[in-house]
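Try this one yourself first.
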């Protein structure tokens, strides 16, 4: 096997999810390349050292520029807050590194354009961690749509609902809470949660033509963890938008962190001429399927337990009936990235795909501000 030396920046939620995937991937997938955990980087030396020891990274850095300058690193994995993605990715591309970047790709679409131009100019392999594309049930949905089993598509509906920011006492800024600080996150639920829904939608149902959105910030001021002062909240706490897809279907999306009782309720539903399908992250190994062409006496919603060997990715895991979960979507993403290097057909979503989502995010934020239907810039 050929080694692929990984240098990861960030040891938080995604630092752990990615590291777990690197460690597991070659145990379950037959691949020519295998990831080597070469270096972990973050600013706090003690913390990054503890992370490196726990996950098996051979070395550490506390300055990401030093990590990128190292000639014993092949891939830079960016798992840090959104405001840092562009600078790191552009520097990594210039240094000729392959890049796996967390979502949303840029702080805004302008940054994402620069990042896309940088990787394409440097001709380095690139990918964005929109991991829900790698849940077997979501891939099955894609298969059914691509085979034409739904017929003409009329509706695409998606929600991403959480409830963890309802308390006005929750501060903004710093570890994990950078999501509430617009200077680190760029936007609120739109870039954080809806970006996932948009990426899946673009993949399943094609491009979005225009959007009409509303956003709300329910808690207007919060204490900032880094300055200690009460500061204005600049993110959107909730967002809902309507859209037209290029294929003529209508889209309806909603996201909030104020839906009491919901933790990570990412759901989508697609309604076609012949059939409908539904997926729910809380039950991610199932796909709900309704086919109007079934005989009337047995027609109804089917709950498909996606665990059979002929369903996406499942032959690499256990035996039929035994399901897999959240972390496996990251394992699949690494497997597909490595397979892409091997076959010469790069895995997606690449930076250009990430840019497409950022164009939709920017249009949503602009529409919410102007209160008008807003055209979405299309990627070429
Ligand atoms: N794909 C997904 O489902 C998913 C889920 C969660 C987060 N994310 C994305 O992943 C990224 C990271 O989110 P997270 O939840 O892991 O955040 P986190 O707060 O858990 O971790 C962030 C990490 O970045 C490090 N960091 C911050 N500034 C740094 C700097 N200047 N140099 C080096 N390291 C620095 C921190 O030390 C920390 O280790 C974000 O872009 C987020 O949108 C994606």
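Now uncover the answer:
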């Amino acid at each position: 096997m050929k080694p692929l030396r990984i240098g990861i920046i960030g040891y938080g939620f995604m630092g752990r999810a990615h590291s777990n995937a690197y460690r597991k991937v070659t145990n379950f997938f037959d691949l020519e390349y295998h990831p080597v955990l070469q270096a972990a980087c973050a600013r706090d030396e003690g913390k990054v050292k503890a992370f490196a020891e726990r996950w098996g990274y051979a070395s550490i850095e506390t300055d990401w520029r030093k990590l990128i300058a190292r000639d014993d690193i092949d891939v830079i994995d960016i798992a840090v807050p959104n405001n840092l993605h562009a600078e790191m990715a552009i520097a990594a591309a210039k240094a000729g590194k392959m890049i796996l970047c967390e979502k949303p790709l840029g702080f805004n679409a302008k940054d994402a354009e620069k990042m896309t131009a940088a990787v394409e100019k440097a001709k380095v392999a690139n990918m964005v961690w929109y991991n829900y594309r790698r849940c077997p049930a979501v891939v099955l949905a894609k298969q059914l749509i691509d085979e034409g089993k739904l017929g003409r598509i009329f509706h695409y509906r998606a929600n991403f609902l959480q409830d963890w920011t309802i308390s006005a006492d929750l501060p903004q800024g710093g570890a994990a809470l950078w999501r509430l600080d617009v200077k680190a996150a760029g936007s609120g639920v739109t870039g954080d949660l809806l970006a996932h829904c948009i990426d899946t939608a673009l993949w399943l149902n094609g491009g979005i033509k225009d959007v009409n959105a509303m956003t709300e910030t329910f808690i207007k001021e919060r204490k900032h963890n880094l300055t200690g002062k009460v500061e204005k909240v600049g993110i959107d706490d909730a967002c809902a938008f309507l859209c037209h897809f290029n294929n003529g279907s209508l889209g309806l999306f909603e996201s909030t962190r104020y839906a009491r009782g919901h933790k990570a309720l990412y759901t989508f539903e697609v309604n076609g001429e012949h059939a409908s399908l539904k997926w729910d992250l809380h039950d991610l190994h199932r796909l709900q399927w309704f086919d109007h062409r079934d005989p009337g006496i047995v027609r109804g919603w089917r709950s498909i337990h996606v665990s059979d060997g002929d369903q996406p990715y499942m032959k690499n895991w256990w035996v039929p009936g035994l399901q897999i979960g959240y972390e496996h979507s990251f394992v699949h993403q690494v497997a597909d990235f490595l397979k892409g290097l091997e076959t010469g057909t790069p895995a997606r979503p690449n930076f250009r795909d990430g840019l497409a989502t950022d164009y939709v995010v920017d249009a949503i934020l602009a529409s919410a501000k102007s209160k008008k239907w807003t055209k979405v810039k299309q990627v070429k």
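Discussion: The mean pLDDT is 98. The chain has two domains: 2-131, 133-375.
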